[in-house]
Specification:
The protein is α/β, with parallel strands linked by helices. The protein has helices at 3-7, 13-22, 34-42, 54-57, 69-82, 101-115, 129-137, 153-156, 166-182, 194-203, 224-227, 245-261, and strands spanning 26-30, 47-50, 87-91, 119-121, 142-147, 186-190, 208-211, 219-222. The structure holds 3-methyl-2-oxobutanoic acid.
Length: 272
């Protein structure tokens, strides 16, 4: 059981801020359904992200673009029902906040009202500043997301490491400072050089959570299905697999099929 689990009854944005001040690392994982969310919450994960990666791992889409606001709300409602302690952050899906701050506000209010989650996450920097500012006016906490932003995959055309060149690194740094200045409570940095991520974490007062951004940030996030080994094809360098659950599940299900075919299941004790 983590120290944080013993210390904090419910994780809030204020708790995350004090964890940064104390140098206590923040753990974050995705979840999209009641059962897995309750396992993640019980295990003491500080932040649960209802990520739009649900589009990939739950719905089987190639990108995060197709998932809808209604679908995100459905996932968020299930996660909220499974959690007692973690802070729950929900991704605003593609098309629900870009280019129109009123739409961004409406989408965020729907998420907060209909799911009971605690905060929203948006991808991007200065280009979505107005949307973030408007969401914040409603008292909805916002987490930023910079670096590799999967909703813009067709603009970049590749999932490779971002901000390797000086100009992009400089823009990322400026965007991160802007996000802090306008009131985001934390930011995610995805797939950028560790040195740049460390600089951002050092220069910002809000928590910086990394995925493929090295260890010198304030916390780490992974996609639950990847770290449990439920997914197979996705193997970036930053991913540590803690289980090979897919293989174990295939084995268990094959045993069930064998037992049904051989009439070993059910036995006398498994019937009425
Ligand atoms: O949707 C998601 O899972 C994410 C994480 C990769 C940070 O945004």
């Amino acid at each position: 059981m983590s120290t944080a689990k013993k210390t904090y009854k419910r994780i809030t944005t204020h708790v995350l801020h004090s964890m940064k001040l104390k140098g206590e690392k923040i753990s974050m994982l995705t979840a999209y359904d009641y059962t897995l969310a309750s396992i993640v919450d019980t295990a003491g994960v500080d932040v649960i992200l209802v990520g739009d990666s649900a589009s990939n791992v739950m719905a089987g889409h190639e990108t995060t673009l197709p998932i809808t606001l209604d679908q995100m709300i459905y996932h968020a409602q299930s996660v909220v029902r499974g959690c007692e302690r973690s802070l729950i952050v929900v991704d605003l899906p593609f098309g629900s906040y870009q280019g129109n701050s009123k739409t961004a506000l409406d989408s965020s209010i729907r998420i907060m009202k209909e799911s009971g989650a605690h905060a929203v996450k948006l991808e991007g920097g200065v280009e979505i500043k107005e949307s973030i500012e408007r969401i914040l006016t409603a008292g909805v906490p916002v987490m930023g997301h910079l670096g590799l932003t999967p909703q813009s995959i067709y603009k970049f055309g590749t999932y490779t490491v971002r901000a390797k060149e000086e100009a992009e690194a400089q823009k990322l740094l400026e965007d991160a400072k802007m996000l802090e200045e306008i009131g985001c409570f934390a930011i995610v940095l995805e797939k950028i050089p560790a040195k740049l991520a460390a600089r951002v974490a050092k220069e910002l007062h809000i928590p910086v959570i990394g995925i493929g951004a090295g260890g010198d940030v304030d916390g780490q996030v992974l996609v639950l299905h990847d770290m449990l080994g439920l997914t197979k094809e996705f193997n970036p360098r930053f991913l540590r697999r803690y289980l090979n659950l897919r293989d174990e599940m295939v084995g268990a299900i094959q045993s069930y099929v064998r037992d049904v075919k051989s009439t070993d299941f059910p036995d006398k004790n498994e019937q009425y």
